[in-house]
What we know:
With 216 residues, the chain is of the alpha/beta class. It has 2 domains: 1-103, Formyl transferase, N-terminal domain (Rossmann fold), CATH 3.40.50; 109-216, Rossmann fold (3-Layer(aba) Sandwich). It is built from 7 helices and 10 strands. The chain has helices at 15-23, 45-51, 67-80, 97-102, 123-129, 165-188, 204-209; strands at 4-10, 31-38, 56-58, 85-88, 107-111, 134-141, 151-158, 192-195, 198-201, 211-213. An 8-stranded mixed β-sheet has the order 3-2-1-4-5-6-7-10. Helix 1 runs parallel beside helix 6. The chain is globular, with a radius of gyration of 17 Å. The termini are far apart. Glycinamide ribonucleotide binds at residues 10, 12-16, 45, 89-90, 110-112, 147, 173, 176.
Amino acid sequence: xxxxxxxxxxxxxxxxxxxxxxxxxxxxxxxxxxxxxxxxxxxxxxxxxxxxxxxxxxxxxxxxxxxxxxxxxxxxxxxxxxxxxxxxxxxxxxxxxxxxxxxxxxxxxxxxxxxxxxxxxxxxxxxxxxxxxxxxxxxxxxxxxxxxxxxxxxxxxxxxxxxxxxxxxxxxxxxxxxxxxxxxxxxxxxxxxxxxxxxxxxxxxxxxxxxxxxxx
Length: 216
Ligand code: GAR
């Protein structure tokens, strides 16, 4: 089986990267994590990649004088490695419109809220402040607007009385680690595609399986 060569873009810890690498160890998983790129030297995720024997590159955004110039460097790196799919996993840079267009339908991101609610940063604080009873995470196709774009899969998490930013973040993260491998498999196997700015599911069972509910 030929597996879709996938790059993962990170900025930090890399726990979602670790979950993707773990899932891709299964022989029937449709994607292979073939390259990791970090925009920061100190990303713990770089060690995760190296421990798994995956080539890891550092491309520092501050070495480029525009967002697009930085993205062009990433674009070259992924093309040289014959990458077909790009996953942003805690990559804390906004992509240029140029990059998003280059990778349209082949660039996905995970965000720790039920988008379109709570895009941006400080998500869990804002969820708690707003008194939400349910939160979760979303994997979506990337479009030029931040944390937007057609939704591939979501998982819900109950917000519990007494939750703090840390406890909520921890429970959402545990769901992210299950959801992202599922969503990447859906994209890599062609079960979901971006068409006319919408996520189109190949069959209705795939559509249903794109929603997870974390047990209380
Ligand atoms: C994850 O919670 C991810 O959803 C979030 O950063 C964290 C990265 O953790 N991404 C965003 O907020 C993007 N808007 P990780 O480095 O351990 O995977």
